[in-house]
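Handoff note, outgoing to incoming analyst
You'll be picking up this chain. Sequence as last confirmed:
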Amino acid sequence: MARYFEKSQKLNDVCYDIRGPVMDEANRMSAAGMKILKLNIGNPAPHRLFAPDEIISDMIYNLRDSEGYSDSKGLFSARKAIMQYCQLKHIPNVDIADIYTGNGVSELITMSLQGLLDTGDEILVPAPDYPLWTASVTLAGGTAVHYLCDEQSDWNPDIADIRAKVTDRTKGIVVINPNNPTGALYPKEVLEQIVQVAREHNLIIFADEIYDRLVMDGAEHVAIGSLAPDLLVVNLNGLSKSHRVAGYRVGWMCLSGDKSHAKGYIEGLNLLSNMRLCSNVPGQSIIQTALGGYQSSDELLVPGGRIYDQREYICKAIDDIPGLSAVRPKAAFYIFPKMDIQKFGIVDDEQFALDLLREKHILITHGRGFHWEQPDHFRIVYLPDIEMLEKAMHRMGDFLAHYRQVQ
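Most recent structure output, in case you need it:
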């Protein structure tokens, strides 16, 4: 008798729709020879946003010396540069031993939650969220409890909703700032209120700040760890977006603030770090150069810079399409438009994304893929150049001019 193997039941409530059924259909169409306009994933290189030459040169120079394992937490030079970066961001009480390099931030998100959560433990996660957070909480045996971000308030977290969702099982709160998928940049006053909630309930703060160097309009990113010297903050960052090296998988995690009540948790993190031996050493070798001196991303974020100009274009293009609207993003390269679901008869946003893909060959990610409950949003990544964005938005306007979802 044949034996059938099913997926682990631990994966039953795990989803990652950024690479889900709509992406599968796009891959099928591409394999059939159709050209897809991809507005779905924050991967700079395919859109000709390349790493600085200095970064490439450093990796080449260090490649011969990167053949062996490093310390499980990472090279001393890389961690020293990260420690100094924390100092520049006013993140307190970060020593070399508090820093872990990773194969991108994604690995470290999973590791940080596996080291903490037991079955039934809760973590507060924003809605909309970057779905890896919810998936990783679930896979670690915990429960992701989603707090609302308020579209009417520039997508800032709803503090009252956060307070209402804290229970005696809550161990931590995730703050994604700048935010993916909305492009929101949280003001200091909002961050201080989140810190106060965490302080009142003895919560760990998980600070996902990988877009902190991709801020526009002269605004300043405030690291939430800088506001919480008396709390344990798990700070996560990396080079994938700011230095356009997503494929190099260069991330890091720093423990800041008061670690006196987290010795067991830290032991668990050290164990998990040792088990994966180390993160990729060639990637670690570029951290020191990347974090020092001139930041090449700055030139992309001002008028005349590519990301800034594409942000300006996409905001106007969305406003010009009847039935669409969007809060203007302040950071990163994402925008989260809202659809008039009555006008378009939308009850299933994944079906909307599939219909758009099949008719106009435009690939987006539907809003419920980010744990947004209503079928009225989708995410656009505005990394493609303006010529491609113009083509995509013209097609989208044509599509929506006659679209009515068949129920």
